[in-house]
Amino acid sequence: MISPRTPSGVLELLPPEQIAFQRMLDSIRSGYERFGFLPIETPVFERSDVLLTKTGGETERQVYFAQSTGALEKARSQDGAEETLPELALRFDLTVPLARYVAEHEHQLTFPFRRYQMQRVYRGERPQRGRFREFYQCDVDVIGKDELSVRHDAEAPAIINAIFADLAIGDFTIQINNRRLLRGFYEDLGIGDPQAQAAVLREVDKLDKRGADYLRTTLTGEGFGLGVDVVEQILAFVQTRSTGHDDALARLDEVSAGSAGSEELARGVAELREVLGLVRALGVPEDNYCLNFSIARGLDYYTGTVYETTLDEHPELGSICSGGRYDDLAGQYTKSRLPGVGISIGLSRLFWQLREAGLIEASAAESTVQVLVPQVDAELLDDQLALASQLRHGGINTEAVLDGGKLGKQLRYADRAGIRFVAILGQQEVADGTVTLKDLRRQDQFSVPRDEVVSALRVELAQPLV
Amino acid sequence: MISPRTPSGVLELLPPEQIAFQRMLDSIRSGYERFGFLPIETPVFERSDVLLTKTGGETERQVYFAQSTGALEKARSQDGAEETLPELALRFDLTVPLARYVAEHEHQLTFPFRRYQMQRVYRGERPQRGRFREFYQCDVDVIGKDELSVRHDAEAPAIINAIFADLAIGDFTIQINNRRLLRGFYEDLGIGDPQAQAAVLREVDKLDKRGADYLRTTLTGEGFGLGVDVVEQILAFVQTRSTGHDDALARLDEVSAGSAGSEELARGVAELREVLGLVRALGVPEDNYCLNFSIARGLDYYTGTVYETTLDEHPELGSICSGGRYDDLAGQYTKSRLPGVGISIGLSRLFWQLREAGLIEASAAESTVQVLVPQVDAELLDDQLALASQLRHGGINTEAVLDGGKLGKQLRYADRAGIRFVAILGQQEVADGTVTLKDLRRQDQFSVPRDEVVSALRVELAQPLV
């Protein structure tokens, strides 16, 4: 006998949790569709030569390769075959598959191409609490051909706002920045060289962990040799957080006024100004977004607007939804220039974090099953099944008990399983042409005519439980 | 530059097809939930030693193994490491993962455990038209502990009926048989040995392709040596198809009357009789199911009721939904006896077949986007975005045009993309406090007050297009 066990580093859920997880996936899907994005799915594996054109370092080392038994045996039996990569590799994100998809199907797509994609990705991480080797990413991107107006950058905060309001996991703040503004700011300070900028940004990123004094010492010290006043300007800059829409615009005015004339900075400010205006036009409450000049995201990838999202009550979770603007999605596959902007929600990790923080237990308690039809009397099984069919035809998720047993036990099962209603059909009900409905949540019970049971339950289910 | 291309043997879809595919997935999910089944998902990979306990032959040869770069390098650098299997393998169906799941979480699950699972599975098939190396399976099973009443076998036809009625891909027939009845029938004919039975069944399975004369020659010939009358009895038996509920019961009476006394046959007849009665109680129209004594399914796996489903107008597609009853789900992982019954829809293959047969083009024409808000006047962008937000808040999937361009071009885009409505907000509409709604499907246009646009569109969207 083999011990049944999941591999390490995966998030496998019991049904109540799976239901809560599925509800979050559905909310995100519905949010993406609400904003007019179209679904795509790509295969779990890509050709290795296609997947691994651009990556390097950590990511490439974490890639999973897939080989069928036949391919494995062939590789093992042939001299030299071991030197070549296996033909297939599992996707490690949804961005490279998107690039491949758009480049491959370029002439069949309409641009701007608005797509969402919610699938699992794979990374050969060392097993570690909260680190997964398989996890869901829920991505949404809009891809232009040749150009894509900065206006599109305003949709991401509106999407984030709609989805996280719907998920109801607490207040959140969408933090917005712009890579051009960052670049321009450092140019103005005389740090124009991209590598020098990257080195400074890496140190600045440690501000939260190491504190301002560490930064002062490091940046004025050997290797950087920045002036004390320059470091103070950097510190003031990266600690900028706006406190409302007008304040955000005022912060941009300040940054412009303080500029030594960098065009990049001016362009970054102009982009942010346009984005903020449209974010407001899209109805995002001003409490839910702010400027945060410390946000940099991936140093190589993003080129304009960047976003991070944090839960106000749980900043320790880090960013729960991030993304930004990039200049060219698929330069490795096509000569067409494909600028884009997008965001990603890492749902497996978020779900795990929320569960750890005790924030999803309530939603996990309610089953997808809405009504249980117990077996009250074995002689009435046909009637009970007809009742179950009636409920199902009415669009109500219904479990019919087929094995029998005591009614009390069946009711306890419904209660423990998070099934809210029980529809009882015994001899008395059959004689009266009624059904007895028990509401286990409200601990209430009432009788309805048999032919009104669907409409009665629909009314009950439509009322929110307080 | 690398040529962007998908691996062979996968079904990657463009957005209109993906929308049609997603609608089918949603219908199936909704059907499974309507019958009170709970969702689970398992990781794409299992530990190889866990996955490959039971399989052999063709399936095992088709398994994909997954190795991270690190594991691959380690295997290649160590002597002897190549002899062992890689640690992880991709699931080749959803049954083995279900067995592992139920055995692993046995003490946290409630039995009968009713679960559905809709995920992709992987097989290293030789690339071939209509054969996929990655494809969706949509499974639903109920698992008992120690025992599971045959009543549960009646739910599968009811689920199939509900889902395929909802999918609206044409009339279908659920064909029902019972392995005990088959076994008993052959026992009665003196073919009691399981291997001899299996050999006869393999030949009988060729009836459609090779014809009755081939069977007569083969089964009376060397190797089988059956009597001419025995072969005629087999031919008559396997060609039995009932033509309605009462006819099905009459066929069972006939088989019983003709039995030489096999207990297995009697039990198979009794089970089918009970199943048929409950299928009727569950409201399945009698045109949609029949007895078909030629259905055998997997020879090793199924033990009682078995099902296949065919499209009446497209029998050449073969079975589009199959399954049956099995005695013990997870004997390789647990000492608990876990009998179950379930069905599976191979959706990737079905979708491909339906597309080939021209049966899904209509549904593919309608976008998930319900309304386009075009950019009529750049000065009114903020108002147009506010309108888009209003529609989205009202639950309507809305794309807002952000790049501008001529209105005619934007309308043509909506039409080609399958977006039914366009909500126009120009200077005139702003002055009047109205929105002009264009229905591109009905080629109709009307004006509604701005604050009634959501309710007006909801009414339109709720009306079926004829």
From TrEMBL, chains A, B:
Pfam families on file: HGTP_anticodon (PF03129), tRNA-synt_His (PF13393)
Catalytic function, reaction form: tRNA(His) + L-histidine + ATP = L-histidyl-tRNA(His) + AMP + diphosphate + H(+)
Sequence positions that bind L-histidine: D93, L94, T95, R123, Q137, D141, R297, Y301, Y302
GO molecular function, one term: ATP binding
Primary location recorded for the protein, binned into one broad class: cytoplasm
CDD domains (alphabetical): HisRS-like_core, HisRS_anticodon
Keywords: Aminoacyl-tRNA synthetase, ATP-binding, Cytoplasm, Ligase, Nucleotide-binding, Protein biosynthesis
An example Gene Ontology CC term for this record: cytoplasm
Transmembrane segments: none
EC code: 6.1.1.21
EC class name: ligase
Keyword Kinase: no
InterPro entries for this protein: aa-tRNA-synth_II, aa-tRNA-synth_II/BPL/LPL, Anticodon-bd, Anticodon-bd_dom_sf, His-tRNA-ligase, HisRS-like_core, HisRS/HisZ, HisRS_anticodon
Compartment list: Cytoplasm
GO biological process, one term: histidyl-tRNA aminoacylation
Aminoacyl-transfer RNA synthetases class-II family profile domain boundaries: 33-374
Quaternary structure and partners: Homodimer.
Family: Belongs to the class-II aminoacyl-tRNA synthetase family.
Record-given protein name: Histidine--tRNA ligase
Organism: Serinicoccus hydrothermalis
